[in-house]
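Structure tokens please, single chain.
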Amino acid sequence: MKVKFCGAAREVTGSCHLLTLNNGYKILLDCGLYQGGDDDGRAGNGNPLTAFNEKWLFDPREIDCLILSHAHIDHTGRVPQLVGDGFRGKIYATHATRDLCAIMLLDSAKIQESDAAYFNRKHRKENEPEKKPLYTLEDVQQVMRQFASFNYEQWFHVHENVRVLYRDAGHILGSATVTLEIKEDGKTTHFGFTGDIGRPNRPILGDPLPMPELDYLICESTYGDREHESPPAEVGHFINIIRHTCEEKGGKVIIPAFSVGRTQEIVYMLDKLQSAGELPHIPVYVDSPLSVNATEVYVNHPECFDSDLHRYMTEDDNPFGFNGLVYIRDTEASKQLNNSPEPCIIISASGMMNAGRIRHHVANNIEYERNTILIVGYCSPGTLGGILRAGVKSIFLFGKKLEVKADIETMDSFSAHGDRVEMLEMIANQKQSVKKVWLTHGTLDRQEKWREYLMENGFGNVGIPSLGEEEIL
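Here you go.
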């Protein structure tokens, strides 16, 4: 058996790992899109991420099955391309992951089509062939026909000698760790993939659960170098930002948030603050069609909720809706928010500000001192969010230089990724059994610190693979 690292190797995006059994059976773990880009969020010919997304480190036609950990696009965003390039096997996921993929991949396909049209309109040279999208809406239709979904804690076979267990990862709705029990050549091997590890004691979802004891483990490392702000301090910090901006300065709080997970958590927190009478009397807008659709999927999967949310729902049957909250799908209604002088909260995608309506809200509000842009999660260094996190004084957006006069606040405590202490707690039971751990889904500097922390806490063989690296087990 051998493992090949085909994405998210020393990067926080593009998750994709290939297991090849001794009999030649090939299992792909995740198939994510590399995300990031230039000022306009469009990737040109020289963009290394584009080069990655357009090429495979394997033949899609040879893959026998695909096992998804969760629905985020950096873990699923190349699945339609995989299918378009010849993959015809089963796509395995939890029920909630399948439902989220149905809306997220369609949204991604629309972006791929519009990006290709934008490039052809703005950058294509005369006599040069037109740029084609990575995949289309029609490709997504075929993807959904190949899904097979399962509950947590239910072993299922993907091959006569391979069975799989999904266990709650606590990251987003339907997210799961993946345990493979592989029987070949007279022995049994347990191979694990954490996907993205969530956080204990967070709103909405159950806590991440330890995996069965493993022989080998691929582990994420997004926040392997730090510890997050605690929840009690988080709520106080959050409401103070809102009051200072909206009540004292009469401004807007602009919150870039991923459509799946982060948006629902923020809305739920606002719902509880409103119920407790602590939220100022200001309108709250969720301005993202995908966020609206994703929230509807959340409502349809209460089996993923934690006990606190179930108890809250006995008093408030809609934890994602309250007086003053408005969900916006319409483009014109979105534009009107930028013309309105009223203090308000605007939650919009994408979380890294590299695409979506949030870029228009940032462009229209960043030059006013009364406003606040509240960043509530990790942003890749090359994205607009990463640039603002770095403390720049000006940005270029939509062809204009804009001075950064609004307050820029960050709250990593909202992150859906566990910090180093939380991740260690989730995988601590592997110390005695695991022969090797590979760190993926993280920048190299954080991975090196995460490896050091793991080895200080009893782990022995910890590797940091590079893209395309292959290892025989």
